[in-house]
Amino acid sequence: MTVTPVTFVERARQAVGSDVARSNRVGAERLAGLREAARQAYPAFDEMRDAARQIRLRTLAHLDDHLQRFADQVERNGGHVFFAADGTEAIGYIQRLIQDRRVRRVVKSKSMVTEEIALNHALEASGVEVVETDLGEFIIQLAGEHPSHIIAPAIHKTAADVGRLFADKLGVPYTDDADELNRIARAHLRRIFLEADLGISGVNFGVAETGSICVVTNEGNGRLVTTAPPIHVAVMGMERVVPTVGDLAQMLEVLARSGTGQGLSVYSNIVTGPRRVGDPDGPDELHVVILDNGRSRALAADTAEILACIRCGACLNVCPVYRAVGGHAYGSVYTGPIGAVVTPALMGLDPWADLPFASTLCGACRDVCPVRIDIPRMLLHLRRRAADEGHHPFRWVAPGLRAYRIAATGPRRWRTFLGLGALAARLFGRSGRIERLPFHASGWTRFRSLRAPAKKPFRRRWGERHGT
Amino acid sequence: MERDAFIARVKAAARAARLPDADPPGLVVPDLPEVDLTEAFVAALGRVGGVAHRDDPVEVVLALADRLGTSEYLGWDDEWLPPGVGAGLRHGGLSALAGDVPSDAEGRRRHQSGYFDVVLGVTGAEAGFAETGTVVIRSGPGRPRMASLIPEVHVVILAEEAICRSLAHWAEANAGAIVDAANVVFVTGPSRTGDIEMRLNVGVHGPREVHVILV
Amino acid sequence: MTRVQLFVTCLVDGFAPEVGTAVTEVLERAGCTVEFPDAQTCCGQPAYNAGLVADAEAMAAYNVEVLDATDGPIVVPSGSCTDMLVHHVPALAEGTGWEQAARRVAARTREFTQFLVDDLGISDLGVLREGCRVVYHSSCHGMRNLGLGRHARALIDSVTGVERVEPAQPDQCCGFGGLFAVEMPEVSAAIMDAKLDDLEATGADLVVGGDVSCLLHLEGGLRRRNSPLRVCHIAELLATEP
After folding, report:
1. Per the domain annotation, does B7 fall within a domain?
2. Closest CA to A243 of A113, A50, A68, A45
3. What is the mean pLDDT of residues A352-357?
4. Residue of chain B minimizing CA distance to A102
5. Domains in chain A: ranges and CATH
6. Which is deepest, A66, A433, C77, C93, by most CB within 10 Å?
7. What stretch of H or E contains B151?
8. Cα angle value B2/A347/A254 (rounded, 5°)
9. What DSSP designation does C212 have?
10. CA-based nearest residue to C123, from C153, C78, C163, C164
11. Are B and C neighbours with ≥3 CB pairs closer than 8 A?
12. DSSP H helical segments within C69-211, as ranges?
């Protein structure tokens, strides 16, 4: 049994150069290219991103009002609303419902928020069968793994991997033909959909003015999960609400283009209450579970803007760190740039303090975000908090930089400091380069040679040139 | 947590939030180049793997049924399809499956298990988006959700004059109508996934083929 | 004659003094009188990026005081240090006694290529080089926060004898990231490798950039690969004195 290393640094060290990381990189680069093509093909796109940002920020500023209106409307439509302070409460509500309705089998469509609270694990522990129906999620559920990408969870698995998995777990003959694998999955899951007792979905967007929930998928499992079973439970992160249907349209215009370059995902499914009198099909019951689980904590802090995220995955696709290490290195359901902020923002810096440092602050994420979230700014906020609250992941940085600050706040001290560099060059440099630095600094020289500090720093050259 | 306590905590957080300023939002209805809406819709539908038809709806459906080797379909009631279509399909030898799902759980399971082998679905649509090749399908009395979802082949009969420029254009005029039904779905081509090695595959859970008959 | 103040940056001062000399020579050829307020040290960016705001404030305040005692444009041969002085330092100074000084300094601060092209209107210094294929590395902070890139490309294109090529992914980071390079070295090196592969694939002889931080990192990686690809700061390309 492998023990998952605790820190990002350790996980990343293992991940760099691995097959998973390589697959993540290929997938990410492709999706980034598709997004760029979509952006160039749709001149209104950038203007729509500005509008989408305004919608999300204004919603967050009055989130309590919008949630109240949303809940009132859901109930007016005949649905039930449960407010869950955390994962335990959400799970408790769903388990009580399951017991009460004698549910044995649950189908799920992809929902990051349910993974955040480890819902499947809790339900399975109480004897309920839970089947993930998003093909990528179905694959990793069979494999017993976590997703490695927000929208392409099995991006790290080859067709051969999947073939072996299906042969092993579903008892079908091995094949590595992707078409055949899809057919196998379709037949297997279809039977389960049509006979399931309860369907659980996430919510891409809740609409406050109508109490509608919108579930977006390409596969159609989001529709089957919310149509076939008699009971539909929708779990919604409390920040995923927008005020009006017009706002929903605005968000849909930027969501798929940002994530995969599609104009719209195949299915944008808008549900407004359970089935009505006279409706031939659809669930008889709708339950919406609204989850806080750290979101109010994130909202009250300098990380509020991160709650504008619509989970498109665009930031992952352009991030040099994500491309180098893949999703699993982040150690949490949320990966990439968004994960580096959201995980510590929701769950605290203990033990997630190294995630905000897993970045070069290059800003590529901010460039592609459909709601223009300033992720680098929030990473800096979290780094500051880590330092102030005693969670700084790197032991030598604080004393090292304090010494540096002392050197850099006095002209004579600075000259002395440069002189030390020149001395180091004379002692350790060979032909103007240093190939091995001691102790912690060896992190540099393990992969790079270092130019030796100048024997004559710039200020001395200036002084000589100008006779000072 | 009790609703009031939950909301109070959110309210306190929202007041304390350090958020950048935001302007009042308004739906951006893009200034897109003038196009022939039908032509643009057909092209966009093709790009997402759907097929457009301009022939007689009954003939198209009967031809598909023949190809599929089926004499049944799951679809909208006659009154919700263009006049004569329902009768024409029956005349051509197709029978419409019952789309009414019982409200007891066991009855539901029994009825829907029968959908496992349904290969043909026929619905209308209330609008199309030229920019993306999308159709808007509203469910309700006489219009089962499953008809556009469970069959391998989904046929949509769409009036040409219901095609508008894009989602944003449609939403500007029609957003309010969302609440008139328990379910409205925007369908953009056949069901797809890239989840195995990022290779596109159609018909994973939803229909493998989408045919839009323009009338 | 425009009188300018040179804020040479800690890395140039300590590791690449020839860049400072080149910057001075280019500015003088462009018609400026260059002054060097020699009490200057480091803008505080390393501490700021590490979350150590008090240390960053101390360094920033010190250098703001040094620079505020001078006049004229402040020219900086680094996109990231310019970004720090222009955007982050005034925010650090907000509500303190040195806020106004920080704003004054920020308003006067320009990155080197930005100053030449936008302020002086010069994008051709009449430089001649023997046949050389150059690839420009656009450092992230300058590119995204200051809009840098077109200035350097125009200056490079004006050099007779130089052919400029673009990598397949010009906007991707080099992987330096400050202390990140030492604290997460495997990740930093993996990003660097992807970047170096891209740069080498262009067939260029020379990588030209505007930030010595990125250049030291890339050069270090190239040396380990025994690559013939060389690295220099744009000022060195434009200077005529060796």
Report:
1. no
2. A68
3. 95
4. B105
5. 1-41+312-394 (no CATH), 52-293 (3.40.50.10420), 397-466 (no CATH)
6. C77
7. none
8. 85
9. H
10. C153
11. no
12. 79-83, 89-93, 99-108, 112-114, 140-146, 150-157, 180-183, 185-200
Angle of helix A135-143 relative to helix A159-170, nearest 10 degrees? 60
Mean pLDDT of A212-217: 96
The answer to whether position B142 is within a domain reads: yes
Instruction: Indicate if the pLDDT at residue A4 is higher than 60.
Output: no
And the tokens for A292?
């806080």
B3-16 and A63-76 helices, crossing angle to 10°: 150
Rounded to whole angstroms, the Cα distance separating A122 from A99 reads 13
SS3 C210: coil
Which of chain A's residues have a Cβ under 8 Å away from the Cβ of B26? 51
Evaluate if residue C69 carries a pLDDT over 50. Answer: yes
Band of residue A24 on the pLDDT scale cut at 50, 70, 90 = confident
Whether the CB-CB separation of A211 and A79 falls below 8 Å is answered with yes
pTM metric for this prediction: 0.94
* Chains in contact with A, where contact requires at least 3 CB pairs less than 8 Å apart: B, C
Closest alpha carbon to C141 in C173, C118, C106, C165: C173
Q: What is the helix, strand, coil percentage profile of chain B, to 5?
A: 35, 20, 40
**Pairing, β A212-217 against β A267-271:** antiparallel
| C39:A444 CB<8 A | no
At B170, which CATH number? 3.40.50.10420
**Structural domains of chain C in order of their starting residue, each with its CATH number:** 2-119 (3.40.50), 128-238 (3.40.50.11810)
Tokens standing for residue B4? 């009031």
Compute the average pLDDT of residues C148-174: 97
pLDDT tens for residues A168-186? 999 889 998 888 888 888 8
What's the total number of domains in chain B?
1
Cβ of residue B116 closer than 8 Å to a chain A Cβ: yes
Whether C178 has its CB under 8 Å from any CB of chain A: the answer is yes
Percentage of chain A beyond pLDDT 90 is 78
Of B28, B201, B203, Cβ closest to residue A178: B201
Residue (of B157, C143, B13, C169) closest to A28 by Cα position: C169
Q: Residue B73: in which H helix or E strand, if any? A: strand B72-75
Å between B24 CA and nearest CA of chain A: 7
What ranges in A151-236 are assigned the alpha helix state H? 159-170, 178-195, 221-225
Q: How many residues does chain A have?
A: 468
For tokens 């033990």, the residue is A351
Contact assessment for residue B44 and residue B131, using Cβ atoms and an 8 Å cutoff: yes
Burial class (CB in 10 A: 0-12, 13-18, 19+), A191: exposed
pLDDT at A209 over 90: yes
CB contact under 8 A, B146 and A178: no
CB-count exposure of residue A241 (10 Å: 0-12, 13-18, 19+):
buried
The ipTM assigned to this model is 0.96
Q: What sign for the dihedral angle of Cα A378, A205, A223, A253?
A: negative
Domain assignment present for B67: yes
Q: Would the pLDDT of B199 be above 80?
A: no
Residue among A303, A299, A297 at smallest CA distance from A378: A303
Q: Which strand (E) or helix (H) includes residue A139?
A: helix A135-143
Contact A309, A255 (CB under 8 A): no
Angle at CA of residue B150, ends B145 and B151, nearest 5°: 115
Which residues are CB-contacts of B102 (< 8 A; sequence separation ≥ 6)? Answer: B108, B110, B111
